[in-house]
Design a protein that fits this description.
This protein is mainly β and 282 residues long. It is built from one helix and 23 strands. It has one domain: Methylamine Dehydrogenase, Chain H, CATH 2.130.10. It binds 2-acetamido-2-deoxy-beta-D-glucopyranose (7 copies).
């Protein structure tokens, strides 16, 4: 089963689709394969087009870079199939073993977490460089909105704050066994714990977010679409919630316009995904 999961800023889009025959089986153990792509970022260093053309692919045109992180879950363990950048109709593999892209950097820089530390990709020059000197196996990464500091999640489920251009890391002791991390626009840190429930890291420790279904299966936690100023975005199954730094939560209901945008994005993302697949798995 392939799981396609998307959440993009600017337009309210989160989607999840699944199908069983999207990828050739030969690369995976057939009984346990789960393919998963995420598009955490649309980089808008290029143009500022707010009108959505009818051609759904056009959503992602004019110098916008869309990242696709592909991974396979084999025997319960997520393995990377690489990070791809889609820009102006072209797909480029930028990092082999990476699963983590920092969403919504304000400049033309995207931060990527890899098995051997952090990389930075310039979406204008299309150059990839090592960032700082850390060598952790990074499976999650988020950049603060107001500073250049990052948070990383390492393979052993520890969260660190990374400062001084990637040369210093400080363990976030409050976040215990994190599965995923996210920041909101106010730079509050959230994470999904071992019990699949989201937490917010407050000055007096981590707090479990209240008001969510007890046995929710999180599919995404991220910075919310730009139209939502406060709180983070949490998707459980098909349902979106906003989770707040005061540990409360709120169901998010899409309006008609947002649903339309959602469907357009869905089609555009599917098209990009197919393009990535076609170019990489002949
Ligand atoms: C994402 O892209 C759309 C158009 O492609 C743009 O309107 C929106 O502002 C972008 N989001 C962010 C956070 O820049
Ligand atoms: C980008 O789009 C927004 C919303 O349509 C608009 O308010 C803003 O002025 C635009 N910025 C530029 C640089 O064109
Ligand atoms: C891109 O930006 C240029 C100049 O800012 C503007 O003339 C053009 O209409 C924009 N294109 C789109 C698709 O918004
Ligand atoms: C896209 O980027 C190129 C190179 O930086 C620039 O020359 C071009 O004007 C940009 N196009 C748009 C539509 O912004
Ligand atoms: C991001 O940080 C800037 C600078 O502090 C702030 O003005 C802006 O409101 C923040 N963005 C959002 C969406 O809150
Ligand atoms: C990274 O560089 C900083 C500053 O040059 C240094 O203090 C630190 O020990 C280095 N860390 C590693 C892991 O090499
Ligand atoms: C928590 O924060 C949200 C968003 O700022 C607010 O609407 C809500 O009333 C707050 N709840 C409590 C119990 O303080």
């Amino acid at each position: 089963m392939r799981v396609l999961l998307v959440c993009l800023a600017g337009l309210l889009v989160c989607l999840k689709t699944a199908d069983s025959h999207s990828l050739p089986q030969k690369d995976y153990e057939t009984d346990s394969s789960k393919h998963d792509i995420t598009i955490p970022l649309n980089d808008t260093s290029g143009n500022n087009s707010s009108s959505v053309p009818d051609n759904s692919n056009g959503i992602f045109d004019s110098n916008t870079t869309t990242f696709i992180a592909r991974s396979v879950t084999r025997v319960g363990k997520k393995e990377s199939m690489g990070i791809y950048a889609h820009k102006n109709g072209k797909v480029k593999k930028i990092l082999e073993g990476s699963m983590a892209v920092s969403p919504w950097s304000s400049k033309s820089r995207a931060y990527l977490g890899n098995k051997d530390g952090i990389y930075v990709y310039d979406t204008e020059t299309e150059k990839l460089e090592k960032y700082g000197n850390l060598s952790d196996n990074v499976i999650g990464i988020a950049k603060e909105n107001r500073t250049d500091d990052l948070y990383i999640l390492t393979e052993d489920h520890v969260v660190y704050k990374v400062t001084e251009e990637g040369t210093k890391k400080i363990k976030v002791n409050e976040a215990e066994h994190a599965e995923r991390i996210a920041l909101d626009w106010d730079d509050n840190l959230y994470y999904i714990g071992a019990n699949n429930q989201p937490y917010v890291v407050a000055s007096d420790g981590a707090k479990k977010i209240e008001g969510l279904p007890a046995n929710s299966t999180p599919t995404l936690i991220s910075r919310p679409p730009i139209t939502i100023e406060h709180g983070a975005w949490f998707i459980s199954g098909q349902q979106a919630y906003i989770i707040y730094p005061n540990a409360t939560s709120e169901l998010y209901v899409f309006n008609d316009q947002e649903k339309l945008e959602y469907e357009k994005r869905n089609r555009a993302v599917q098209a990009i995904f197919l393009q990535v697949r076609d170019q990489t798995e002949e």
